[in-house]
Amino acid sequence: LDTPLIETLRTREQVSLGLLLDAVFDELMSGRRGDTANQLPDVSELYAFLLALHTGMNVNPRFVTPASTPRGSLDGNPAAFNSVHPMHRAQRKAGAFEETKEMRLYATFNIPLIHGWTAPADSPAYEAFLRSAQTFEDAQNIQFLESELEDKLRSEGLPPQEQQMLQDIQTIKAFLHSWPTQLTDYGLQTISESLAPGQFAILFRNDHFSTIYKEPKH
Fold first, then answer.
1. Residues 151-181 pLDDT 10s
2. Which helix (H) or strand (E) holds 210?
3. CB contact at 8 A, 193 and 212
4. In this structure, are residues 40 and 112 in contact, taking their beta carbons and an 8 Å threshold?
5. CA 28, CA 138: separation in Å to the nearest integer?
6. How far is residue 82's CA from residue 94's CA, in Å, rounded to a whole number?
7. pTM (2 decimals)?
8. Residue 114: phi, psi to the nearest 5?
9. 213 pairs with which residues across the strands?
10. In this structure, what are the phi and psi dihedrals at residue 73, rounded to the nearest 5 degrees?
11. What is the DSSP string of 167-198?
C-alpha cells in the first residue's frame, strides 16, 4: 500500500525529522489502524516524545521481569505478544523496563523494547535482585548503604535482615561488574527465545538502542 510514510520517502532524497514525524502521524491517524486511532495518547505529548527520540529516551531496565510487564516490552505489548508463537510465550522472557510515561508513549507503536541484562532465575544474582533491587535505579541507590552496613558490621554486628542486604549488595555489584555492556549470555538466550521468526524489536544495550531482527531461517 502507498502509505503516507512510503510516499514521503519515495518523493525525496532527504527527509527532515519534522517531515518524517508528520508522515508517521498521518499513518497513525489513518483508517488502516482501525479503532486504535481513537486510543492514541495526547497528540501534543506524543509529538514531543517523538521529537526527542533522536537524542535518546530515559529507561530504567528491570532485572526482575514482573508477571505483568509494561506495554512497551515484548510480553506486555498485546500486538507484539500475539505475534509470538505459543511455544515461545511459555519460555523465558526477555528483559523489560519500569513502566513510565515515556514507556507508555513508546507503546503506541507496538514495537517490542527489550534488553538482555538479566540473570537466570536460579542464580544468586537473580535472588539478590528479587529481594533488594529489581531495577537498575534500585541497584544504584542500594549501593549507597554498603559503607554504612560495613561500618555497623565491624562495630556491633548486623541483624540477619541487614546482613542479607549487605550480601545482596555485594552480589549485585559483582553482577554489574561482570556484565558492564548490559548483556549476559542468559539474556541473549532469552531474547532469541522470545522473538518470533521475522520479528523486529528494539534492543537496549550499552546505553544505546539498536534495531534487531530475527531472521526466519536461522
1. 999 999 999 999 999 999 999 999 999 999 9
2. strand 208-213
3. no
4. no
5. 36
6. 15
7. 0.80
8. -135, 165
9. 200
10. -90, 175
11. HHHHHHHHHHHH-TTSB-HHHHHHHHHHSPTT
